[in-house]
Design brief:
CATH class of the largest domain: Mainly Beta
InterPro entries: DUF4397, Secre_tail
Keywords: Signal
Domain Secretion system C-terminal sorting: 261-329
Number of domains: 3
Pfam families: DUF4397, Por_Secre_tail
Protein name: DUF4397 domain-containing protein
Largest sheet: 6 strands, mixed
Radius of gyration: 23 Å
Length: 332
């Protein structure tokens, strides 16, 4: 309720005090645990209290034609003096904007760790230009994801987003209302990182304008075991972002660069991370440095290594007699 009252108060304040206003939606996309909830200040006034990761405001009326300071502070802030980041902006009257908070606050625990920042997209939309379409704004907000393409494979639309990198927006895609399959690939298009459903027709989204954000970490093990990578959707009405359902990749499409084991070195257990890959019908073999098999089991995402001698080993995922991928680890 407190958050709702604060939003209501700032809308009334800006609407009554300024003849010129602009429409602004703010989206919280910083996956750092230290920024799980933040406070947002407009100049010295608290505008959003305990604004949670992967949520969005509705479009708000903010003053235009004058410089305002948008500030991000920890969720337990007591005033504008606690702000971690301040971005001065001058909004254009009657324009619409989407503002996305990305990046890392913590000094350690994240790799890479681009600092917390606000990305501002002008010419935002609250509805599609054509009521028969769905207009989709794409934003790359995953700090450890490389430059990527988005390739539509469901109806054969092909590459719909080309070479988008962290912090960038791709201008609105005006898509016919249909159900799509989206492959996230590296910039060459040769390696598929993840695959998602975008059921625009099933959800009856005709006429909607949406923002789709790449969010979270491709490798949580290098990022304080934070939230995993996914595609999330913000609507103009705000609220919790909607996660697009993932589609498991086939083993033949497996990208070894997203396969990880942790902790490494290990003492009691090795955990296996292979996001988006169904390995349930596979097996795991552990071999020592002489090539001797010291452990075999059906695939599990957590393997007991407590009985192994100290030393260096290879953990291998097998499909029958074929090697899918292998990773070296140290047993302490």
């Amino acid at each position: 309720m407190k958050k709702v009252l604060l939003i209501f108060a700032i809308v009334l304040f800006t609407g009554n005090s300024f003849a010129q206003t602009a429409r602004v939606q703010v989206i919280h996309n910083s996956a750092d645990a230290a920024a799980a909830e933040v406070d947002v200040y407009i100049n010295s006034d608290l505008a959003l209290d305990d604004f949670a990761f992967r949520t969005a405001t509705p479009f708000l009326d903010l003053p235009a034609g004058v410089e305002i300071n948008i500030g991000i502070a920890p969720g337990n802030s007591t005033g504008v003096g606690d702000v971690l980041l301040t971005v001065p902006v001058t909004l254009t009257a009657n324009e619409k904007y989407i503002v996305v908070a990305d990046g890392i606050v913590s000094p350690t625990g994240y790799s890479p760790a681009p600092p917390l920042s606000l990305q501002v997209f002008p010419m935002a939309r609250e509805m599609a230009a054509d009521p028969a379409n769905v207009d989709v704004l794409v934003h790359h907000g995953s700090t450890d994801a490389p430059r990527v393409d988005v390739v539509e494979t469901g109806i054969g639309a092909g590459t719909i987003v080309d070479d988008i990198s962290y912090s960038e927006f791709q201008g609105y895609l005006e898509l016919p209302t249909a159900d799509y399959i989206l492959d996230i690939t590296d910039e060459t298009g040769a390696v598929t990182v993840a695959r998602y459903q975008a059921p625009l027709a099933t959800l009856s989204l005709d006429g909607a304008a949406l923002t789709v954000l790449a969010s979270g970490f491709l490798d949580p093990t290098q990022n304080s075991d934070g939230p995993a990578f996914g595609l999330f959707v913000a609507s103009p009405a705000g609220g919790n972002l909607l996660e697009l359902p993932s589609v498991p990749l086939s083993v033949s499409e497996f990208n070894a660069s997203v396969f990880a084991i942790y902790p490494n070195p290990a003492t009691e257990r090795i955990n296996i991370s292979a996001p988006g890959i169904d390995l349930n019908n596979h097996s795991v073999a552990i071999t020592d440095m002489l090539g001797r098999v010291v452990s075999e089991s059906a695939f599990s995402d957590s393997i007991d290594v407590n009985n192994l001698e100290k030393g260096v080993y290879n953990l291998t995922i097998m499909d029958g007699s074929s090697v899918v991928t292998s990773k070296r680890f140290v047993k302490n």
